[in-house]
Amino acid sequence: MEDFFRDLAAEAPRWNFIWMYDERQQGKVLAGLWMTVKLSVLCLVFSVVIGLIGAWMQGSQSRIVRAIVQGYIQFFRNTPPLVQLLFFYFALGQFTPVVTGPDGWTVQPIISNVGWAVISLSFFAGAFNVEIFRAGIEAVPESTVEAAESLGFSRLLIYIYVVLPLAFRVCLPALNNNLVNLVKTTTQAYAIAVPELLYHSVSIWNDFPSAQYPTMLLVFFAYIILVAILVFGMHRWERAMKIPGYGT
Fold first, then answer.
1. What does the H/E/C string look like for 108-146?
2. What is the C-alpha separation between 201 and 204, in angstroms, rounded?
3. What is this structure's pTM?
4. Can you tell me whether residue 107 is helix, strand or coil?
5. Cβ–Cβ contacts within 10 Å for residue 163, how many?
6. Using CA atoms, how far apart are residues 11 and 110, in angstroms rounded to an integer?
7. How many other C-beta atoms can be found within 10 angstroms of the C-beta atom of residue 77?
8. Torsion of Cα atoms, 72 then 85 then 198 then 122, to 10°
9. Bridge partners of 107?
10. Cα 121 vs. chain centroid, distance in angstroms?
């Protein structure tokens, strides 16, 4: 197989699949793909948690709490995710405490570029998730909530055990779309040198211009596969949670 791609590179210089026969470039691709997967999973989890908490806070009796949540939503929904990423890393990153490095001489911030990418992208997607969960909560019949209140449930217990399980069934199609967009948005972490798949791919075709087209195809199909896995899992989840006559 390696000989085939070497011969292809010699015969068709524009189609140099160098990461198929060069171990160093192959290591870059695998490291970038693994970082992309980790970044996607962390952002998905944290954005859902933010959405759940934000949707619960939107129902608070305090006008201040509701105003804070609404301000957060408007800020992150109305500004580009790349601008947010740069703001978090370059602006807020200046105020990040530093610690001594392993060598005992250098210093490094306690939040790395990967950490800022997770924080920024999670807050970005979380703002949309708040509204998605809010719509699902509003779809839960008021009589169901009143029945839980009559049994002595607190507001938090009603949210966790009654409202949220029902709201999730309504939210899943919209949540699926938002999470798919989040996975694709992780490519913007390239702007702050997070070593994900796009970052390593660019470094490969900068060193080997003849590998540009094949590496572009690699990135293209890698994201198709990642998104397909996510969509498949979400659709299976939708079917498993389906209640006849309710939600999905």
1. EECCCHHHHHHHHHHHHHHHHHHHHHHHHHHCCCHHHHH
2. 5
3. 0.88
4. strand
5. 24
6. 49
7. 12
8. -30
9. 100
10. 6
Domains and CATH numbers, the chain: 28-99+108-241 (1.10.3720.10)
* CB contact at 8 A, 212 and 198: no
Give the separation between CA 151 and CA 1, rounded to whole angstroms: 67
pLDDT at 178: 92
CA–CA separation, 36 and 9 (whole Å): 27
Q: Name residues of the chain where pLDDT drops below 70.
A: 101, 103-104, 244-248
DSSP state at residue 195: -
Cβ atoms within 10 Å of 54's Cβ, excluding its own: 21
Residue 59's pLDDT is what? 83
**Considering Cα of 100, then 101, then 102, then 106, what sign does the dihedral take?**
negative
Q: Which residue has the tokens 């950490």?
A: 115
Residue 34 neighbours by CB distance under 10 Å: 13
199-213: pLDDT as tens digits: 999 999 899 988 999
The length of the chain, given as a count of residues: 248
- Paired tokens of 149: 């209140």
Q: What pLDDT score does 60 carry? A: 84
Q: Rg (Cα) of the chain, in Å, rounded? A: 23
